[in-house]
Design brief:
heterodimer; A: alpha+beta; Butyryl-Coa Dehydrogenase, subunit A, domain 1; Butyryl-CoA Dehydrogenase, subunit A, domain 2; Butyryl-CoA Dehydrogenase, subunit A, domain 3; 3 domains; seven-stranded mixed β-sheet; B: alpha+beta; four-stranded antiparallel β-sheet; 14 helices
């Protein structure tokens, strides 16, 4: 049966996140963007909504709720509050979810309990430097040696790397496949570089990471000897990014809509002029279309179907949509749109990144 | 409820049947009917008539059956089935699809505001007999296009005979000739019973084939959907029975939009279905482009970063994404109809997006295939011409944007015009 109504549980989750986003995230978003810092209390409150703990199996104190569709609904709502905050709240999932999806029983028993308590800074390193990045052609290598592996390569855009207790490193293996390796902070040969300076998501600390002959035991390869379900991880990541982009786009659309209704020029609200009203209508249509594409891809993933095509199209479409919508919002506000005290220029800077973001989101 | 994109099996079966018909019956004569503009798609009409007739018979029987609360609780998929069938038939040939023998928009208006007796009286003809019949809707006039409230056709009650007398001219009527000249069908005519009341004075009237005072013009010659029958109709002292008025004859002036609302409710149901037709044409072009490129060694990957794609691959991916976006908006607006939810906003979103998307997608298809795309040997150029109407009829793209804008802003039509 075709339906576009979330379950009651999902609806409650959306409302909970919305309250958090509106009351706690929006008020600090500008300051966080300017200073590059997210107040600890805001991060804690975001974590305590319990998105990641709920995804853990019941044996680890969770609810076993790990549907892509629920993740997509949550991601949109969090990103509506602020993208950098959303990414920081969700960053531990970059580590937790692959363990959940692909870890051996021993790895799960060791690592999943980490997520049942307070916010834990752990992360994953996927993206690599250079003009072009292709997650299916990694330059970082994992070479088998003795009863372990040696990791070599450069990573970038690794969130939380400086404070992370553990990192999941994606690397190309001898056979050409991609594996994920669990590396502890302070490991020999692991160097965390200077915090990166980005156009947007400035409150999310990201770093370059260098791996020079980092040795990991065989037991630290995610999934042991089993092949890593890399495509499934990438698909899920693309769907999550799509939903996050929808959240930013929706924020920009709603702000521009409300502004246009209040802004009087020529003796009437500018929203009563077709030039503005049509732009707002197109923004609304594109936000909805992008959301439905993310939903469809997530639904297919949850059905266990191949969603490569849907996830790809959804993430591309959402990346285009967020730029179109945020840009239209800047235009709607005119000169004010260019002023940093108004949030729309931030949403344009945050949104512009989606075409490049890779490895920043798995929800 | 839960979010789901699972098509009911019955709907999927009906889609496959429509697709088979589109491939086997419509495509082979698609070019011929485009080149010979006013020829009828006889094979399609002959084959589809019994299907449409039996569907209509079941629908009418359901109206007569005593209400069954158990059955009403069950989810419906009537509109969903229509959506996928229309999409598939329009993939075959949008012009031929528009010749489908059914009450079409006339049926939608009668369903929306007719009494049970009127439904039986006007729709029964579509549920029986060997000869196909057509219904049509006459709204547009030479001076009333998007501004439907400006219609000048009048309906005046003759107190002596209790008949309505229609006078005026209607244009751009899809299947009007088929309904009135080539079968004993019906046309729903929008006329005003009180011009000073504006929208509140608008009412739909049913005019049956054979009524005196009705003149059907020569069919229009068109850019695309050439197999579709588009005519004008003149009403000169055309007398119809009192009960051919659909809805309430009282005009309530105080801010009432009674008559107009009937028309708008019809659009909420018809716009997603027009969007579905658009999507079918778009899919035809996209599939053909992908197949042709494949024969030339170009495939479309879904796992490559942007920098690894050629310009052609990027274009095709963009076409595909645009169509998918339009498809999902249409699916949502349609599913809401089945759920009995008000879908005014969603219907206009779907129509605006689909109309624009298929216009662009089919134009790009011609461009990508170069001179062969431009050649009348292939159907791509025809699909581009067929697609173009979708951003025009059943509310232009601009009118649908206006509706979306009003809904998202909470403005009335006088606040945002």
């Amino acid at each position: 049966m075709v339906s576009f109504t979330p379950t009651e549980e999902q609806q409650m989750l959306i409302e909970t996140i919305h309250r958090y986003a509106e009351a706690q995230v929006r008020p600090i978003a500008h300051e966080a963007d300017e200073t590059g810092e997210i107040p600890a209390g805001v991060l804690r409150a975001g974590w305590e909504i319990g998105l990641i703990p709920a995804a853990l199996p019941e044996a680890y104190g969770g609810l076993g709720e790990h549907e892509a569709l629920t993740g997509v609904l949550a991601a949109e709502e969090l990103a509506w509050g602020d993208l950098a905050v959303a990414l920081k709240v969700l960053a531990p999932a970059l580590f937790a979810y692959p363990v959940l999806m692909a870890g051996t029983a021993a790895q799960q028993a060791e690592l999943l309990p980490l997520f049942a308590g307070d916010y834990i800074p752990v992360t994953a390193a996927l993206a690599e430097p250079g003009l072009f990045f292709d997650p299916r052609a990694l330059a970082t290598t994992a070479t088998a040696q003795g009863d372990g592996y040696i990791l070599n390569g450069l990573k970038r855009n690794v969130p939380l790397a400086a404070e992370a207790q553990k990192l999941l490193i994606y690397a190309r293996e001898d056979s050409g496949t991609v594996g994920a390796y669990i590396v502890d902070a302070g490991a020999d040969g692991l160097t965390i570089g200077e915090r990166e300076k980005l156009m947007g998501i400035r409150a999310l600390p990201t770093y370059p990471v260098t791996l020079s002959g980092v040795r990991v035991d065989a037991a630290r390869r995610l999934g042991g000897e089993a092949p890593l379900p890399y495509e499934a991880i990438l698909n899920r990541q693309q769907v999550a990014l799509a939903a996050l982009a929808v959240g930013v786009a929706r924020a920009a659309f709603e702000y521009a809509r409300d502004y246009a209704k209040g802004r009087v020029q020529f003796g009437a609200p500018i929203a009563t002029k077709q030039a503005i009203a049509f732009m707002l209508a197109e923004m609304a249509i594109e936000v909805d279309a992008a959301r439905l594409m993310a939903w469809e891809a997530a639904w297919k993933l949850d059905q266990g179907q191949d969603a490569t095509r849907e996830a790809y199209l959804a993430s591309r479409y959402a990346a285009d949509t967020v730029v179109f919508v945020a840009d239209s919002a800047v235009q709607t506000l005119g000169g004010y749109g260019f002023i940093r005290e108004y949030p729309v220029e931030r949403w344009l800077r945050d949104g512009r990144g989606f075409a490049m973001f890779c490895g920043l989101a798995i929800v | 409820m839960a979010i789901s994109f699972a098509m009911p099996e019955r709907v999927e079966r009906e889609r496959m049947m429509a697709q088979a018909l589109a491939e086997g019956i419509m495509r082979p004569v698609s070019r011929q009917l485009d080149e010979n503009e006013h020829e009828r798609p006889v094979d399609f009409i002959k084959l589809i008539w019994p299907v449409m007739r039996d569907q209509q018979a079941r629908a009418l029987d359901r109206l007569k059956a005593p209400p069954d609360p158990e059955k009403e609780k069950k989810p419906r998929s009537t509109y969903l089935a229509m959506m996928v069938q229309i999409e598939a038939l329009s993939w075959g040939d949008a012009g031929q699809y528009l010749c489908i023998p059914s009450p079409l928009l006339a049926g939608a208006a009668i369903e929306a505001v007719g009494t049970p007796e009127q439904k039986e009286r006007f729709l029964r003809r579509f549920a029986e007999g060997d000869a196909p019949r057509w219904g049509a809707m006459a709204m547009t006039e030479p001076n009333a296009g998007s501004d439907t409230k400006a219609i000048e056709t009048t309906a005046v009650l003759d107190p002596e005979t209790r008949e309505w007398i229609l006078n005026g001219e209607k244009i751009f009527i899809t299947s009007g000739g088929l309904a009135l000249r080539e079968s004993d069908g019906i046309v729903v005519v929008w006329a005003t019973i009180d011009r000073s009341a504006g929208r509140a004075g608008m009412r739909p009237f049913v005019v049956e084939a054979g009524t005196p005072g009705v003149t059907v013009s020569k069919p229009e010659i068109k850019h695309g959907i050439r197999a579709s029958d588009t005519v004008s109709i003149k009403f000169e002292n055309c007398r119809i029975p009192y009960d051919n008025l659909l809805g309430d004859p009282e005009v309530r002036r105080e801010g009432s939009r009674e008559g107009f609302r009937g028309a708008m409710a019809t659009f909420d149901a018809s716009r997603p279905l027009v969007a579905a037709s658009a999507l079918g044409v778009g899919r035809a072009a996209l599939e053909f482009v992908k197949e042709t490129l494949h024969q030339h060694g170009i495939d479309i990957p879904y796992d490559q970063p942007y920098h690894r794609l050629s310009a052609i691959q990027r274009d095709v991916l963009e076409m595909e994404a645009q169509l998918k976006a339009a498809y999902l908006l249409t699916l949502r607006a349609t599913a809401m109809l089945d759920e009995g939810l008000r879908n005014n906003l969603e219907a206009s979103m779907a129509k605006a997006k689909a109309g624009k998307a298929v216009t662009k997608v089919t134009q790009k298809a011609v461009e990508l295939l170069g001179m062969m795309g431009y050649s009348r040997e292939w159907l791509v150029e025809k699909w581009m011409r067929d697609a173009r109407i979708n951003d025009i009829y059943e509310g232009t793209g601009q009118i649908n944007l206006l509706i979306v804008a009003r809904r998202i802003l909470g403005y009335s039509s006088s606040e945002l015009s």
